[in-house]
Write a structure and sequence with these properties.
The complex is a heterodimer of chains A (163) and B (210).
Chain A lengths: L10 H7 L5 H11 L3 H18 L10 H11 L5 H10 L3 H22 L1 H41 L6
Helix pairs in contact in A: 1-3
Chain B lengths: L16 H7 L1 H10 L3 H23 L2 H17 L10 H24 L2 H4 L15 H21 L3 H11 L5 H8 L3 H19 L6
Helix pairs in contact in B: 1-2, 2-3, 3-4, 3-5, 4-5, 5-9, 7-10, 8-10, 9-10
The chains are: A mainly alpha (163), B mainly alpha (210).
Chain lengths: 163, 210
């Protein structure tokens, strides 16, 4: 093959260092490198540069990146409460989204129960009243029965009060 | 910023809108965003978020600034959805916005503070502890020093060379794609990369990889 340096084709050496050449081209270049010290030197140096750049890892992305972005998007346009509520789940895989949605639903229900306990007490109140009214009626009936029983007993024994 | 990517002189423009959309699934997703599908925007965000942030981070070398710039990139993508036309790959358009914003920030920063930040030795590298002789700490220190050298070497490159190297090395973009992002011809990109790698070889080739 022709010399990449002489042909101003140094990107071939860059591609070789990056392992981007197909096996056939890489093989041809390696045969050339065996005879060309200049190309061999550049290829070796470029490989070192490539490995040095490989070592430079970027820091992880902040976990609240999406939230901040959507907040900024929301500032510029109207959005319904339902969209705001469901959007985080739309970005997740189904396996993650289902348990989270179920948990969110339970938490929502628990929140409603804690926020409005009075309404449930009030709803139960009429039942209590019915129970109490029945108890009072039953007690009055019992008293009436006792009174009648007492009157009958005194008549039989000739008690003066019964006369 | 105009949603239509700039096509430099000498770069082929024979790909029609439909052809690009058919070849590029991201462009198809963006067309759905244009039609009001917010979920597709979420998919695009998940797919490209990390690469955009990492790219801006390596350009400006400050994580907080990089994330702010990336936020602005996606905000612009969303806001310009109604005028979007897929005349090029979505990623090309995305990185064109990112490069534009990051290079503008660098110019403003350079104007305000000069090269003070790049020469500042108080980077986020671990503090040297000379008395600590444990091998793992030594290795960490060696790595940190080498990493600092890499960062400085990249930061010392002219802006366009730096952007070209980062797209070529970390995003594995082709010359044509980098040309579209930078708004220049493919031969200009080859020239940029040739000079950039020449500089980097002079500065970094001595480094032993760990």
């Amino acid at each position: 093959m022709s010399c990449p340096i002489e042909n101003r084709n140094s990107e071939m050496l860059v591609a070789y260092a990056a392992s981007q050449l197909d096996p056939e081209a890489a093989g041809a270049l390696e045969r050339h490198l065996a005879d060309c010290a200049a190309c061999l030197s550049i290829a070796a140096d470029q490989t070192a540069v490539w490995k040095a750049l490989d070592a430079w890892e970027a820091p992880p992305v902040s976990p609240d990146f999406n939230r901040r972005l959507y907040r900024r998007i929301d500032q510029g346009m109207p959005i319904s409460w339902w969209q705001r509520l469901t959007r985080p789940f739309l970005l997740m895989p189904l396996r993650q989204a289902l348990p989270l949605t179920a948990t969110a639903g339970l938490l929502l229900m628990a929140g409603l129960l804690l926020q409005h306990p009075v309404s449930f007490t009030r709803a139960a109140a009429p039942l209590n009243r019915v129970v109490r009214a029945e108890q009072v009626e039953s007690t009055l009936d019992d008293l009436d029965l006792l009174r009648q029983f007492g009157a009958a007993a005194s008549t039989e024994s000739g008690h003066p009060d019964a006369m | 910023m105009n949603a239509q990517p700039y096509i430099p002189p000498g770069v082929s423009t024979d790909m029609g809108v439909a052809a690009v959309a058919a070849l590029d699934y991201d462009a198809e997703l963006m067309l759905r965003v244009k039609d009001g599908d917010g979920t597709s925007f979420g998919v695009l965000l998940e797919k490209h978020r990390a690469s955009v942030i990492h790219f801006t981070y390596r350009l400006v070398q400050e994580q907080a600034i990089a994330e702010e710039l990336a936020q602005e990139v996606f905000l612009r993508v969303y806001r310009s959805r109604s005028s979007y036309e897929p005349t090029a790959k979505f990623k090309t358009w995305l990185f064109r916005i990112a490069t534009h914003l990051a290079l503008n920030w660098l110019r403003d920063e350079k104007h305000e503070r000069g090269q003070e930040r790049l020469d500042d030795t108080s980077t986020d590298l671990p503090v040297r502890q000379v008395s600590d002789r444990r091998p793992s700490v030594e290795q960490e220190l060696v790595y940190a020093v080498k990493l600092d050298e890499v960062r400085r070497a990249v930061a010392a490159l002219p802006e366009k060379q730096r952007a070209a190297v980062l797209m070529h090395k970390y995003e594995e973009m082709e010359y044509t794609q980098i040309a579209r992002v930078l708004g220049c011809s493919e031969s200009a990109v080859k020239s940029l990369l040739f000079r950039a790698y020449e500089t980097l070889r002079a500065r970094l080739a001595h480094m032993e990889t760990t």
